[in-house]
Amino acid sequence: MIIRDNPSAFRLFFVMQGSVLPRILGKIGAVALLTALVLLVDAEVTLLPHVSMAALSVFGVALSLFLGFRNNAAYERWWEARKLWGGIIADIRSLGQQMAAFSENREDCRRMLHLAVAFAHLHRGHLRGADTRADAARFIDPEEAERIAARLNPADAVLHRMAALVGEMARAGRIDAYARVALSDRLGQLALTQAGCERVRSTPLPFVYSLLVRRTTYLYCFLLPFALIETTGWFAPLFTAVVAYVFFGLQAVTNELEHPFANVQNGLPLDAMCRIIEVSVAEALGETPPPLMQPRNHLLT
Amino acid sequence: MIIRDNPSAFRLFFVMQGSVLPRILGKIGAVALLTALVLLVDAEVTLLPHVSMAALSVFGVALSLFLGFRNNAAYERWWEARKLWGGIIADIRSLGQQMAAFSENREDCRRMLHLAVAFAHLHRGHLRGADTRADAARFIDPEEAERIAARLNPADAVLHRMAALVGEMARAGRIDAYARVALSDRLGQLALTQAGCERVRSTPLPFVYSLLVRRTTYLYCFLLPFALIETTGWFAPLFTAVVAYVFFGLQAVTNELEHPFANVQNGLPLDAMCRIIEVSVAEALGETPPPLMQPRNHLLT
Amino acid sequence: MIIRDNPSAFRLFFVMQGSVLPRILGKIGAVALLTALVLLVDAEVTLLPHVSMAALSVFGVALSLFLGFRNNAAYERWWEARKLWGGIIADIRSLGQQMAAFSENREDCRRMLHLAVAFAHLHRGHLRGADTRADAARFIDPEEAERIAARLNPADAVLHRMAALVGEMARAGRIDAYARVALSDRLGQLALTQAGCERVRSTPLPFVYSLLVRRTTYLYCFLLPFALIETTGWFAPLFTAVVAYVFFGLQAVTNELEHPFANVQNGLPLDAMCRIIEVSVAEALGETPPPLMQPRNHLLT
Amino acid sequence: MIIRDNPSAFRLFFVMQGSVLPRILGKIGAVALLTALVLLVDAEVTLLPHVSMAALSVFGVALSLFLGFRNNAAYERWWEARKLWGGIIADIRSLGQQMAAFSENREDCRRMLHLAVAFAHLHRGHLRGADTRADAARFIDPEEAERIAARLNPADAVLHRMAALVGEMARAGRIDAYARVALSDRLGQLALTQAGCERVRSTPLPFVYSLLVRRTTYLYCFLLPFALIETTGWFAPLFTAVVAYVFFGLQAVTNELEHPFANVQNGLPLDAMCRIIEVSVAEALGETPPPLMQPRNHLLT
Amino acid sequence: MIIRDNPSAFRLFFVMQGSVLPRILGKIGAVALLTALVLLVDAEVTLLPHVSMAALSVFGVALSLFLGFRNNAAYERWWEARKLWGGIIADIRSLGQQMAAFSENREDCRRMLHLAVAFAHLHRGHLRGADTRADAARFIDPEEAERIAARLNPADAVLHRMAALVGEMARAGRIDAYARVALSDRLGQLALTQAGCERVRSTPLPFVYSLLVRRTTYLYCFLLPFALIETTGWFAPLFTAVVAYVFFGLQAVTNELEHPFANVQNGLPLDAMCRIIEVSVAEALGETPPPLMQPRNHLLT
C-alpha cells in the first residue's frame, strides 16, 4: 500500500509510483498511432468511412458503466479484505482480553496468544503464496511448527490447535466452562474471517466480465479514430491517447485491486498488519513489543 | 468457475472458453444483416425514415442503466452465494474446533464431522439438482443415508440428525450443558446459511425484469440501423454488430450469474468447495485428507 | 412469483404473463397519438415550437437516474422481504433442531413446532391482509386459535404463546436453564424478522418520490414529440411509443415490486413458503409431510 | 408519512399534499422569468452569447450524478432510521417474551414493559425535540418520571433504570442468572438502536455537499437559458421551468428525507410506532390495547 | 462538523465556511485564464485545433462516473466512521447498564466506567494524532495513566486494563461467572469498533485512484477550452470556470471526507462525542454531568 500525500498539480504527472501508466503505455501509444494512421489514410489515400460521434457516445456511456461496475466490485473486494484483516486484529486483541479476564495462568496466556500470532503469519503466507514458516516458528514450538506446516491449510491447523488448548485448559480446571464457550466463540469468529479471506483470494471476479469489458474497450478504442476524423489535425491522436489512458487505466487499477492480498503496490499491507498483531500481543503479555513497520519509499508491504 | 490469467490483447479475441460469444453470435449476425438490409433499401429502393442519433442516445442511456441494474443484481446474487458457501466452510471448521474444545470422545467427533460433510454434499446436490447420495454415503451409515435421502430436504434432515446427536451426547454426559448450547448455535448458523442458499436458488430475479430488459434490447437494436443510415458504407453493420455484442453479451452474462449454483462455466465450484470441507474435516480428525481439486482445462466445477 | 424459462426471441413479444404491458398500453397509445397529432399540426396547420433533442437528452438522463434509483429501492425492498422470509424458514428449522437437542418430550416438540407453523400462517395473513385462520387452526387448539385471532397482531400473540410455553417447560423441569435462554433467543430472532416484514409492508417508498418521478415521466413524454418533429414521418409515433414503454414500464415494475407481500404476479410466494415450513416441521416431527407447492401455469402464489 | 394510493394520471398534477411543489414554485418561476428575459434581450436588444447545448449536457450529467448521490444518501438515512425503529419495536416485543419465559412475577413484567414504553416515548421526544413527558408519565411513577425528565438524555436514563430493575430482580431471586444476562443483552441492543437514532439525528449529510450541489443547481439553471436561445419562442421558459422542477424538486425531497425524525409530511410516523409498541405491550400483559393510529387526511404522524 | 441551516439562495454564494471554494480558487482561475488565452490565440494569432464537444462529452461522462465512485467511497468511509463512534457510545452506555445489572459495588462501577471514558479519549487522540492524555488522566489513576500512555496503542492498553478488572472482580466474587462473560463480550465489541476506526484511519483510498482521477480532471479541464472555441465571447471562460468548480470541488470534498477523523471543518466531531460519553457515564454514576458541547460559530469539533 502506498502512503503519501497527494502530489501537487505539477508533480502529479510525473509520479510513477503506484501509477498504472507504465503498464498501459504501450496500449496508449498503439491507439495514438492508429489514430494518426487513420487520419493520414483518410487525408492522403482514400476517404475512410466515418462513425458519428453521437453513435459512439452511447457506446462510451455503456463502456463507462461496465468499467464502473467492475471497478466498484474490485474496490469492494479490496475493502472487504481490509475489513476482514481488521477483524483478525480485533479478534486477537479480544482473545488477549479474554485470557486476562478468564485465566490467571500466565503460561496459558502466552501459549494462546503466541498461537494466535502464528495463525496470523501462516494465514498471510497462505493468502500471498509466501513462505512465512520462519515468522510463525518464532511463536510456536519447532516440532509443532513442522507438523502444522505439513498440513494443506496450516492456518486452519493452528486454529484447531488453539481449540485443543482451550479444551485442555478447561479439562485441567484452569478455566471454567463459561470461558471455554467464550474462547471457543472467538475461535469460531477467527475461522469465519479466515474463510472470508480465502473466499476473496480464491474467487476472482467472473472471468466472463474480464473478457466482455476488455473486448469492449479494445473495440471502442479501435472505432474512436473513425469518429474523430472530423476533428482536424494533431489533436485527434492526443485525444484518443487521453481516452485510452482513462479506460485502460481504470482497467489496470481494477485488475490490481481485484487481488487485494497480492504483494503489489496497491495491495494490502499484510506484513505491517501482522506486525501490529505482534505488537498488541507483546503489550498484552507485558513483553517488549517490536517497532511498528514504517513505509519505505512510501510503500508499506 | 474459470481460473486463468487474463489473455494478452491479441489472444483475447479468440478465447471462447467462458465467453458468451457463441451463444449470442446468431443475434449479432441478425442485427448486422438487418442493418445491411436497411442501408440497401434506403439507398436503392426507397428513402426510409431516419431516427436522430440524439433521440436514440437517451434510449441507449436508459438501456445501459437497466442492463447495469440487472447485472449488479445478478452479480450480487453470485457473490452472496459464494459468501454463503464460505460460511458453510467456516462453520464446519468451527464445528471441528468446538468438538476439539468440548469433547474428548473421538468417535463423537468423527460422527459429528462426517455428518457435516454429508450435509455439504447433500446440500450441493439439492442446489444443483444433482444426485450426490454416493458422495454423502461415504460419510454416513448406509441405512441412515437411505432414510435421509428419502426426505424432501435431505440436507435439512442431516442437520436434524446432528442436533439429535448433540442431544444424545449431552444426555449421555459426554458434553456439558454449555457445549450443547454452543453446538446447537452452530447448527442454527448452518440452517440459516442453508436457507440462504435455497433462497438464491429458488427465487430468480423477477421475471418482469427479464421481459422488460430483453424487449428493450431488441427494440433498441431494431431502431439502431435507422439512426445509422447517415453513417455511410460498410461501417454501419460492423458498428451495430459491436453494439449488439455489448448489450446482448451483458445480458447473457447476467443470465448465467443469476443462477450461481448451476453447473456452468461461470458458476460456483461447489464440487471443489465440498472437497475443501472434506480436507478440513480429515485434517481435524487426523485422517489423511484427499487432494484439493485442481482446475481441468482452466475449469473448476 | 412467475417461474419460467426465458422465452425465445420471437415468443418474447407475445408473453403477457408477468408483463406490465397490459397495464400501460393506454398510456403508450396516448403518447403515440399525441406525437401523431403534433406532427400533423406542425405539417398542416401551423409551425409548432421545437425543442432541441440535446436539451431533452439531459432531461432524459435525469429521468433515467430517478427511475433507476426508485427501481433499485423497490428491488431492494423485494429482496429484503425475501431474505426475511428465508430467515423465518431457517429459524423455524433451527427451533426444530433445538427442540431435538434440548428436549426429550415429544409432545413439547410437537406443540412448539406447531405453534411456529401457526405463526407463519398468521404472519402471512397479516402481511397479505388475507384470512389465514383456517390454516393456522390446523396447528393449534381451536379455542386458543380463537383467542389469538382476536388480537390486533395475532402473529405476535403466537410468539408470546411460544415464550410462555418455554417458561412452562423450564419451570416444569422439562428443559434446563440453558435451553430456556437458547429458545428465547430464537424467539427474539423471529420477533425481529416479523417486525422487519411489518416494516416493509407498512412503510412504502416516500410518496413524494412517486409524485416527482411520475410527474417527470409525464412531462418528458409530453415534450418528446416536440423534439422529434425533425424526424420525419410515421417513425416518430413508433419511437415515442417505445420510449413510453421503457419509462412507464419500469415505473409499473417498480410499483409492483414495492409491495413484495401483495398477492400479485411478481409478488413473493408466501403460500409456497408456508408450505415449505409445514414440510420442514412435519419431517422434523417424523410426520408425513404435505407435498411442496408447484407453480400453476408458471405461477407460484 | 403519507399513506395513499397513487393518484390517476389526471389528478397527479393537482395533488399538493406531500408534494414539494409549493416550496419550490418561487424558484421555478424565477428560472422561467429569467429565460423569458434572456430571449427578449437576445431578440430585441443585443445578441447574447450562446452556450452550446452539448457543453451544458456534460454539466447536466454531472449534476444528475451529484443530486442522485445526495438523494441516495438521504433515502438510506431515512430507511436506516425506519429500520432502527423497527428494531425498537421488535426488541420491546422480545423483552415481553423474555419476561414471559423467565419470570412468573406479573408485577415485574408490568414494570419492565411499562418502562420500555416510556423509553420509546422519551426517545421519540428526544429525536423530535418534542415534549413527550406526559405520554411517558402514563407508564412510570410520577416522581421517577420527574427525576428522569431532568436528565440530559432521558431515554438513556430509562434504559439505565431498566438495567437496575434487572439487577434488583436477580438479587431478589425472582429471575435466575441466565435471565439476567439475556435481559441485559436485550437492553444492550436497545442502547445500540438508540445511539443509532441519535447518530442519524445529530449528524446530517456533510454541509459541504449541500453547498456544492445547491450552487451547482443554481449555476446550471442560470446557464440553461443561454443554451436554449436557439429553441424558438415560448417553449424555452416552459422547458427551463420543467428542468428547474426536476432539479430543485429532487433537492427539496432530499432535504426532507435527510431528517427522517422531523415531524414533516414525508417524515417517519414515530407517534404511530409508539402506539404500536403500546399495543404490543398491552397485549403481552393481557391488558386492553389502545386502537392503532389511523392516517388522518392520508397523513400518519 | 458544521451545523447550520441551509442558507438562502442569495447568501448561498457567499458562505465560505465549510466550503471548498477557497482551496480550489487558484485552479478555477487558471482554467478560466487558459480558456481566455485559447480564445485569444485562436482569434488573433492562429487557428487552433478544435475538439468536438460530443467527443469530450464521453470523456465528461466517464470523469463524472469516476468522481462519483470516489465520492461514494469517501462518503461511505465517513459514515462508517460515524457509525463506529456511535457504536462506542452505545457500548459504553451498555457497559454502564451491565454494571448496574450485575454489580452492587459502586467503586467497581466507577472504576470500570471511568476507564471506558479514558478509552474514548485515548482512542480519539490516537485517531487524531492529538495529545489527549490530560483528558484521560481526569478519569484514571495518574500512575496508571503514565504507564498506559507509554504504550504504542494506549486505547488498546486501557481495554486490556478493563479486562483485567473484569477478571479481578470475578475472582474476588464481586460479579458472577455470567457477568464475567457478558462484560468480556462487551469489551470484545469495543475492540472490534476500535480496530474498525484504526482501519479507516490507516487505510486511505488506494493511491492509484487519486492519481487516475486527478490526472483525468486536469486533462479534461485542459481539453475543454478547445471544445468551447465555437461558443463565442466572454462566456467560455465563465463556463469552464463553472465546470472546474464542479469537478475540482467534488474532488476537494472527497479528499476531506476521506479522512473522517481529521480535525477539519467537515470532519467528525470526536470532541463532542467524547463529551456525550462523559455525560452518559456521569448520569449512570449519579454524578453531575458536564454540559454538552455546543457548536461555536456553527462548528462542532
UniProtKB/TrEMBL annotation, chains A, B, C, D, E:
Q: Does the keyword Transmembrane apply?
A: yes
| Membrane topology qualifier | Multi-pass membrane protein
Question: Main subcellular localization, coarse class?
Answer: membrane
Organism superkingdom: Bacteria
Q: Which InterPro entries match?
A: YneE/VCCN1/2-like
Where in or outside the cell? Cell membrane
Please verify whether the record's keywords include Membrane. yes
Family the entry assigns: Belongs to the anion channel-forming bestrophin (TC 1.A.46) family.
Q: What's the protein here called?
A: Bestrophin family protein
What organism is listed for this UniProt entry? Answer: Sulfitobacter aestuarii
